[in-house]
């Protein structure tokens, strides 16, 4: 966005980025001043209610006019994205401040923050996220509070009708006890957070030192902060008391107003001035860093050494008797031994915490095919596949107790990751290979070959059970590589039966797995079973189309987009207890009966809610500029112009009936007409060359056979190709005699076939190898076929003669996503792996072809184009599907101690 002008704001530079949005420095060209523009993530304001609530709160915040509060000038919307226009502050955040601050300066900073909060609280606004990142220190020394966009309106005894009750917002480590517990908050929650910041500035460490997020939350609710004087020498007792009063657990016992706090701090500043030597404190402390990368050392509050006890409480000052002193020390040792060996320390798992986890900047959680998320067995790390704007999908790992995620660059194309039993490795599928990567080393290693992986699980004996293909059984392979052995075979009477998504039970021998009985998706015959690596165990648990995972006496699975937990006895393979719901809106991919969730042995659960996609189909020119918006119906798989460019055929999802139909859109009359009515999944329509018929595939039978129907919807459709393979049409030849078909075979993946309509619909194989080949289009002159193949290791585009002469020409070298012929046969358009549309001009010399250098036209991602389907006959306009800017790819939901939800 740098250099662009949005409304009357010229973007100059990027200032920062975080979970609450991206901030740019800009010039207001109307008022000739510098401002800061904060663009908000769409997932935070994805509904009209959320948007209305935010605008109301932001308007309230903009009414504040105080030197210690960053001024909000305006709220604007651009291309469906809200942004705030704020005062530009030339300074640094308290987090990034490099100076050593004296006690006097620390008091001055705290006073200014308190006065800014007091002004906000008087207007009924609570910040709810006071932390060092949201406190700016200007070059002239003035302190200003940022990010009142999180503010929550409150009034005595009443909540705003537009404010959700029980919503937890804030930053771990700075949240008040009432925030952690999801209770209602008022202005005193800001006083607690400011107390944490002031404690860190003075003590050099956080008052709450848990080793991970849940432990910190436990301490915030249950463990009193130690006096600063036990950590730093020379702290004034009155100042120590002021800070500790801010950190009271009970908000009624806490300092009751920011105005009162400011007054107490000013008094403390006056009394300390000139009467004592100036004490210097480094505010760039490890404490601030620990809130970003939480402590890894032995700093838990659950134990304390005798030396540390004596250092903090100095027994010699009040114990003069040798025998009394050592008697008390002996008693202390006995108490430590008693609580260590005969009692259980308070379990942090008593707290059930729910948190949203956002992806790294400019990366989106991959949610296709049922999602790619996996939590480690110890519950400390999350592995996920992240997609960037260029179409790369790589493996990432993020520790739960960190805001930073690590990318593994050599894993592009990773799919369905799962952890080793000891959490040292992550296994994943990549193309036709099962891979593993050691997370501390980062070098991928091959385990074995696969066709198209459908999940796996790794036991304590370093064995992996996995599904290597879209059809067939389950295999076992040593984690260090070796010869795979099929251990559970499919039913030979069901040709496309697929055993998939195995998950080991605690004994490491038995596992749960799913059976999909239709290639095209779920069916009433789908079941969940128990298998074994070394016996013929064959136990059916229940009928269902879902992946299943086990943890701590329970199984997790999905019915109708609802994530369910149910008691389970892993020794006797028995379901127990009543079914309970975790989430009623889980992301689920029916074609693979896979949902986005993962559970650990440590009581942690992650899942992703259903992706909300908002699209619109329209026309763009050769530079990617919008020419015309056409319709909002969501395209399922394919759309294309009729031969005369007057109509568009498309397949569209029907969520109400859970099916897909074929529709025809009249570009002149702006009318959409449905032409199939069978309540089946009917997809992949292609026009006949005269525009009077449409061919498509339908799952009326098990294998998605191919039919033809009149384009005006009249008459019955006729079956033209039936076989025991999944297949779909891709193009109809210009002479009307051939339909190009992609057919899925169990050994050769995708093959290219042709249906000869003028020869009793005879089917011939055009290309069949051990690689995946998919046909795209005939050339108009019927001499060539454009297709894609992964024979080089990545999909690239190729051209072969349709009949007669031999030859093959590779069109692309930088990867290939989709492509098609220009209507005059003089060019090929294709989308590369960089998500850019290219045009390649062709020179046809009879029996051979030569190609010009690819010419980039525009990047689809920069134009918010999700899919490109076709080009008009004159090559001037492209049929595309846009994102409207309101699509939502939800963050991950993380639950610590999911059992606490069941107790409730």
Give a structural overview:
The protein is globular, with a radius of gyration of 32 Å. Strands 1-2-3-4-6-5 form a six-stranded antiparallel sheet, covered by helices on one side. Strands 16, 17, 18, 19 and 20 form a five-stranded antiparallel sheet that branches. The protein has eleven helices and 66 strands. The longest helix has 20 residues, at 103-122. Helix 2 (103-122) runs antiparallel to helix 4 and helix 2 packs antiparallel against helix 7. Residues 151-169, 289-330 and 332-350 have low confidence and may be disordered. With 904 residues, it is mostly beta strands. It folds into five domains: 1-88, Phosphorylase Kinase, domain 1; 94-297, Orthogonal Bundle (Transferase(Phosphotransferase), domain 1), CATH 1.10.510; 311-344; 353-611 and 889-899, Methylamine Dehydrogenase, Chain H (7 Propeller), CATH 2.130.10; 615-883, TolB, C-terminal domain (Neuraminidase, 6 Propeller).
Architecture blueprint of SSEs:
Layout: E1 5-6, E2 9-18, E3 21-28, E4 33-39, H1 48-62, E5 72-78, E6 81-87, E7 91-93, E8 100-102, H2 103-122, E9 125-126, E10 135-138, E11 143-145, E12 152-155, E13 158-159, H3 177-180, H4 188-203, H5 213-222, H6 237-246, H7 258-272, E14 280-282, H8 286-290, H9 306-313, H10 322-341, E15 353-357, E16 363-365, E17 373-375, E18 381-388, E19 393-399, E20 406-408, E21 414-419, E22 425-430, E23 433-438, E24 444-449, E25 456-458, E26 463-466, E27 474-478, E28 485-488, E29 498-504, E30 510-516, E31 527-532, E32 539-543, E33 549-551, E34 554-559, E35 562-569, E36 574-583, E37 588-589, E38 594-595, E39 597-599, E40 604-608, E41 615-620, E42 626-631, E43 635-641, E44 647-654, E45 659-666, E46 671-674, E47 682-687, E48 693-698, E49 705-710, E50 718-721, E51 727-732, E52 738-745, E53 749-756, E54 762-767, E55 773-778, E56 784-789, E57 796-801, E58 809-810, E59 818-821, E60 827-831, E61 836-844, E62 849-851, E63 855-859, E64 865-871, E65 878-883, E66 892-896, H11 899-903
Antiparallel strand pairs: 1-2, 2-3, 3-4, 4-6, 5-6, 7-10, 8-14, 9-12, 10-11, 12-13, 15-66, 16-18, 17-18, 18-19, 19-20, 21-22, 22-23, 23-24, 25-26, 26-27, 27-28, 29-30, 30-31, 31-32, 33-34, 34-35, 35-36, 37-38, 39-40, 40-66, 41-42, 41-65, 43-44, 44-45, 45-46, 47-48, 48-49, 49-50, 51-52, 52-53, ...
Helix pairs in contact: 2-4, 2-7, 4-6, 6-7
